[in-house]
């Protein structure tokens, strides 16, 4: 069915209108980019309609995104419907196609993960979602039935930072949370809006649908004020969660004196705060949520052996404890180092090759000369047997990295600068060889700074004739 959109007058003020209340809930969006998530359901259709009405007042650059999960035979039709609706509203539209893998987490959780991954990659400041009051109550019950803690039971915040957003900061907004599903549908009918009907929302095999169509109606019939009490509980839980977040943030900062998780400082925390920080670690590094048994086992091991080498398997990688520091090793760890990809070949100068791979050059007490940088050269990862020629003899680069307390799992990815003869001229972030010069240049990978035990300035040899110091 084609969407119908009759541009409403801005002076409309009837009982069904949600716009005044919505505007009161939104943050200042002037000059910002706002993307509405459009599934085609009534909640997202109404949200986009409201934002379209208010776009001049908001002063935001408005767009819409539809996530195509490919789970329903009508998925292509839904994407086309959403595109036509956005054309009627004169709103830029994009469809994002994802592949949902439900193994180990279920179809709903897998689809949600892919959806939020799309949101985190958008070139926008805010993503507006159509979650409403009924969704909030269902989320609370789902968390309770699954044994969730304060974080889960506090359900959905009105606004939060989207994790995994890369260098940009994307915030999620849920401006429809104050409104019930009935009010949203009443608004849609009063404006003559159409929307898509996903028949999977009536499948009682899905727990959320069973709650929506069976448990919650019976609960409301038995306890007419149940919804109000649950919403009050959610508000209180969100306040308590905010307080806990302040404590968690303070602990997190204290555990990262040099930007790296300090296991010995972590040991001094209470058991509850230790577990909280380990969970924060998995979230910050997108390693996935551990089960309670895994969390308890690793917490115990790390508490008793903080200086040892330990590994903690997680859904999307693992954590690695090494000499009192805790590091994240996600599944895509190797892909984070472009110089490790043999397909990345660059012709030209050593300086240009390094910069093309994301390295920068900084002044060092002993480094490479401008002449060396401007001659042909290349960048690659460490190989077995690589050595760095020193003023007297040479030294195995893997040994240099070990002395610098670089964890073993990182060493194979360490970038080396090779001169025009293919000889290693410098190890990034560490030191240059005997052919360097005073006040020269050293290649530096910002992503590797945290793997050095001390600030790099302490590791540069002031005297090039001291070959065995780092």
Explain what this protein looks like in three dimensions.
By secondary structure, the chain is of the alpha+beta class. The chain has helices spanning 19-25, 42-58, 75-89, 107-121, 133-145, 150-153, 181-190, 207-222, 226-254, 263-267, 271-284, 292-304, 350-356, 370-374, 397-403; strands spanning 33-37, 61-68, 93-97, 126-128, 159-161, 171-173, 261-262, 310-314, 317-322, 325-330, 360-367, 378-381, 387-389, 394-396, 415-418, 424-427, 431-432, 437-444. The chain has a six-stranded mixed beta sheet with strand order 3-2-1-4-6-5, sandwiched between helices. It has a four-stranded antiparallel beta sheet with strand order 7-10-9-8. Strand 15 (415-418) and strand 16 (424-427) form a beta hairpin. Helix 2 (42-58) packs across helix 7 (181-190) and helix 5 crosses helix 8. The radius of gyration is 28 Å and the shape is globular. Mean pLDDT is 89; it is low at 1-13 and 455-470.
């Amino acid at each position: 069915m084609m969407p119908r959109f009759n541009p409403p007058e801005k002076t409309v003020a009837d009982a069904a209108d949600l716009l005044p209340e919505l505007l009161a809930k939104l943050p200042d969006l002037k000059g910002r980019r706002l993307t509405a998530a459009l599934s085609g359901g009534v909640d997202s259709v109404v949200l986009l309609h409201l934002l379209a009405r208010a776009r001049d007042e908001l002063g935001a650059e408005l767009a819409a995104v539809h996530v195509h999960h490919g789970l329903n035979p009508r998925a292509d039709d839904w994407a086309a419907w959403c595109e036509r609706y956005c054309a009627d509203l004169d709103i830029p539209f994009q469809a994002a196609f994802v592949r949902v893998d439900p193994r180990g987490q279920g179809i709903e959780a897998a689809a949600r993960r892919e959806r939020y991954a799309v949101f985190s990659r958008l070139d926008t400041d805010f993503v507006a979602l159509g979650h409403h009051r009924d969704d909030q109550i269902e989320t609370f019950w789902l968390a309770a039935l699954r044994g969730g803690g304060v974080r889960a039971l506090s359900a959905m915040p009105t606004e939060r930072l989207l994790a995994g957003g890369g260098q940009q900061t994307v915030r999620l907004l849920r401006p429809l949370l104050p409104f019930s599903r009935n009010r949203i549908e009443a608004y849609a009918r009063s404006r003559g809006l159409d929307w898509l009907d996903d028949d999977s929302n009536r499948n009682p095999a899905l727990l959320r649908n069973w709650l929506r169509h069976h448990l919650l109606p019976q609960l409301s019939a038995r306890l007419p004020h149940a919804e109000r009490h649950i919403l009050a509980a959610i508000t209180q839980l969100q306040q308590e969660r905010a307080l806990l977040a302040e404590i968690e943030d303070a602990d997190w900062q204290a555990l990262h004196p040099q930007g790296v998780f300090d296991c010995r400082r972590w040991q001094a925390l209470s058991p509850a705060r230790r577990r909280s920080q380990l969970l924060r670690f998995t979230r910050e590094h997108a390693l996935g949520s551990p089960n309670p048994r895994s969390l308890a086992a690793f917490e115990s091991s790390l508490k008793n052996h903080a200086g040892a080498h330990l590994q903690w398997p997680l859904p999307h990688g693992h954590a690695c404890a090494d000499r009192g520091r805790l590091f994240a090793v996600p599944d895509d760890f190797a892909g984070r180092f472009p110089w490790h990809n043999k397909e990345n070949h660059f012709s030209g100068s050593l300086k240009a090759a390094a910069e093309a791979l994301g390295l920068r050059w900084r002044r060092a007490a002993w480094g490479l000369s401008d002449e060396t940088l401007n001659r042909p050269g290349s960048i690659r990862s460490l190989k077995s047997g690589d050595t760095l020629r020193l003023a007297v003899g040479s030294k195995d680069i893997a040994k240099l990295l070990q002395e610098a307390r670089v964890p073993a799992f990182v060493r194979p990815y360490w970038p080396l600068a090779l001169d025009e003869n293919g000889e290693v001229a410098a190890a990034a972030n560490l030191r240059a060889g005997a052919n360097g010069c005073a006040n020269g240049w050293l290649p530096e990978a910002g992503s590797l700074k945290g793997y050095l035990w001390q600030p790099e300035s302490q590791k540069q040899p002031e005297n090039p004739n001291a070959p065995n110091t780092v």
